[in-house]
Design a protein that fits this description.
about 150 residues; Serine Threonine Protein Phosphatase 5, Tetratricopeptide repeat; 6 helices; mainly alpha
């Protein structure tokens, strides 16, 4: 009797009479070499915790990529805004020099250098205003910086 039951059960399983979703959890979680008819996002031997962990990992990776992209865009926008402010400060310093407002021009040129330390024109403006006001030491330092930036 026991042999018949075992034979019938193995025959039913091999014939595909049982569907994967209708088996007990013990049979469902057992590793199987036979392909499954039920569609699954994870391999048949993966536990629910493993599937959840891998989907969380994929979600975290996508979120990290999105945040990195956002940081790059914000940094680019910040650099563009800083360049625009530096350019405006440089132009303001030039205008103040034309109006003979040396002290205000010096502040504007220093602001341009603070925003963009690689602006040779701003360093040259500082050198010119310092030389014009009699501050030769600062004029020499600023002129040397401008010369270095121009590659001379």
């Amino acid at each position: 009797m026991k042999l018949r039951l075992t034979l019938l059960l193995s025959l039913a399983l091999s014939a595909g009479a049982c569907q994967r979703g209708r088996l007990s959890p013990v049979v469902n979680n057992a590793p199987s070499n036979a392909p499954s008819n039920a569609p699954s996002a994870a391999p048949a031997h993966a536990s629910p915790k493993t599937v959840l962990a891998s989907s969380e990992k994929a979600g975290k990776t996508a979120e990290a990529e999105r945040l990195a992209s956002k940081r790059k865009r914000l940094a680019a926008a910040r650099r563009a805004r800083t360049r625009a402010l530096a350019s405006a400060s440089l132009e303001a310093g030039r205008q103040m020099l034309r109006d003979s407002l040396d002290e205000s021009a010096l502040k504007a040129f220093r602001e341009a250098v603070r925003l963009n330390s690689r602006s040779a024109e701003a360093w040259l403006g500082i050198a010119y205003v310092c030389e014009r006001s009699g501050n030769v030491k600062d004029a020499i330092v600023a002129f040397k910086e401008a010369k270095k930036l121009w590659g001379m």
